[in-house]
């Protein structure tokens, strides 16, 4: 895939996002609100750090998609895109349910806060 094709693909990924108050417009930021579980936020922050620094990806947290669904982490670069759900108190069943609302054709990952090890995380 040449550079032009990669840029076009990145624009396709960007066009999936509904840039509203929840998604915001800032990349590489792990959003946090009052009441956010610290461990959930910490794991999400570590993932953002790794994706930005080790993979040079465009990363947005709490990404709201135009056709529905909100991902903890959405990252893309060139023709690679990934949706990552960080599970803290949620069950695997909720992850499976949420998958139905996300854009098709994008790699999906779940990361459990209790099992997360930053040094082992890779996409």
Distance between the termini: 20 Å
Q: What overall geometry do the principal axes of the alpha carbons give? A: globular
> Helix count?
3
Strand content is 15-25%
Mean pLDDT: 89
Total count of strands: 4
Described by strand count, sense and barrel closure, the largest sheet is: 4 strands, mixed
- Low-confidence parts lasting 5 or more residues at pLDDT below 50? none
The CATH architecture can be named as 3-Layer(aba) Sandwich
- In total, the number of domains comes to 1
Overall structural class, as computed from helix and strand content, comes to alpha+beta
Strand order within the widest sheet?
Answer: 1-2-3-4
**SSE ordering:** HHEEEHE
CATH topology name:
Endonuclease, Chain A
Portion of residues in helices?
25-40%
Task: Describe the 3D structure.
- The chain has 123 residues and is of the alpha+beta class.
- The protein is built from 3 helices and 4 strands.
- It has one domain: Endonuclease, Chain A (3-Layer(aba) Sandwich).
- It has helices at 3-15, 38-55, 92-99; strands at 58-64, 70-77, 80-87, 107-112.
- Strands 1-2-3-4 form a 4-stranded mixed beta sheet, with helices on both faces.
- The longest helix is centred in the middle third of the chain and has 18 residues, at 38-55.
- It starts with a helix and ends in an 11-residue tail after the last strand.
- The relative contact order is 0.18.
- The model has no long low-confidence stretch (mean pLDDT 89).
């Amino acid at each position: 895939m040449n550079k032009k094709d990669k840029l076009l693909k990145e624009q396709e990924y960007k066009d999936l996002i509904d840039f509203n108050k929840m998604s915001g417009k800032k990349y590489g930021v792990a959003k946090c609100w009052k009441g956010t579980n610290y461990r959930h936020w910490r794991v999400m922050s570590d993932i953002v750090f790794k994706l930005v620094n080790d993979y040079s990806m465009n990363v947005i947290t709490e990404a709201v998609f135009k056709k529905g669904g909100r991902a903890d982490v959405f990252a893309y670069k060139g023709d690679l895109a990934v949706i990552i759900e960080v599970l803290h108190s949620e069950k695997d069943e909720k992850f499976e349910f949420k998958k139905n609302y996300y854009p098709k054709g994008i790699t999906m990952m779940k990361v459990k806060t209790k099992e997360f090890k930053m040094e082992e995380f890779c996409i």
